[in-house]
Amino acid sequence: MNSSAKKKMLVIVNPYATTVSDRLKNLVIYALQGRFEVEVEATESQDHATEIGRDAVDGGYDLVVAFGGDGTVNEVVNGLAGTDIPVTFLPGGNTNVVCRTLGIPNDVVDATEHLLTLADDFQPRKIDLGLINDRYFVFSCGAGIDATVVEKVDANPKLKSKAGPYFYSWSAVTSYYRSYARNPVRLLTTVDGVEHDGVTVLAQNSDPFTYFGKQPIHVCDNVSIDDGTLGMIVLKRANQLDVLSVIPRLLSSRFSTTKHRQVESFPELTEAVVRSGSKDESGAIRPFPVQVDGDYIGTFEEITLKAAPKALTIIA
Questions:
Q1: What gap in Å lies between CA 114 and CA 142, rounded to an integer?
Q2: Rounded to whole angstroms, how far apart are CA atoms 34 and 138?
Q3: What is the CATH number of the domain that holds 104?
Q4: pLDDT tens profile 276-285
Q5: Reported pTM
Q6: DSSP code, position 184
Q7: Where are the alpha helices (DSSP H) in the chain?
Q8: Residue 50 — φ and ψ, nearest 5°?
Q9: pLDDT tens per residue across span 25-58
Q10: How far apart are CA 49 and CA 13, in angstroms?
Q11: 210 and 168 housed in the same domain
């Protein structure tokens, strides 16, 4: 194959991702150059991958590759959602939920080999995304307990990299007792005009919701990345007994989380509004934390969740 016949590829790489080193990046790029005309852009700051993705729309690329963790994936997707430019992914993070969900190998060498085979089997397809306000998510969005955990983990990147799921576990326990055991922010979630009271809201666009090491975590039932809807649950309260009985269901393939007595389930969801129902001593509304695709994005007094059918073109 001569160079003029090669598809033009842009690789957006996060050099700070957990498993990405200069040596590994160079090896991956060298391998890809055998089948693609490759250009590389490295991210330099938060949201830079989104900017690069938006700029790529007019760059004549046949394929854009997000090389990093799920945070990098989310940023690239937000730059290219709604376009016909195919996106694919190379794992460079701790968890790599998107890669594993789409059947892309979790080892970057195997994933690169897989990507090379796509040069001869180039079949773009559309998948759904979710929306929180004006930001897309690929696999999950959470408000409440899990977002508090993610905030704590993201604040300690070295421990996140070294301890992985064990640091998540420690963060979950300490976050629960500090923020949710006594006086959590109440979340009022409106679906089809009906308001539901709870302390945590989890929405997902694909299954699993995430992974604990190699173990998939299942939250909603019958969620598909191309069914045009989201799955969502509301955890109604967070006393110790309830939380301890929910956790085994998240890790089980036999017992459904949605069947727990303190969980309300909303399958085939197209839109929901979540707002804070709590105030502090001064009367000000207490905001709640939110995570998107495993990254903490801040606190909000209100969010809108929507399904975005066929919003992204991918190759996988």
A1: 31
A2: 30
A3: 3.40.50.10330
A4: 999 999 999 9
A5: 0.91
A6: P
A7: 22-32, 48-56, 70-80, 97-101, 108-117, 145-154, 157-163, 165-179, 240-250
A8: -65, -45
A9: 999 999 999 999 999 999 999 899 999 999 999 9
A10: 8
A11: yes
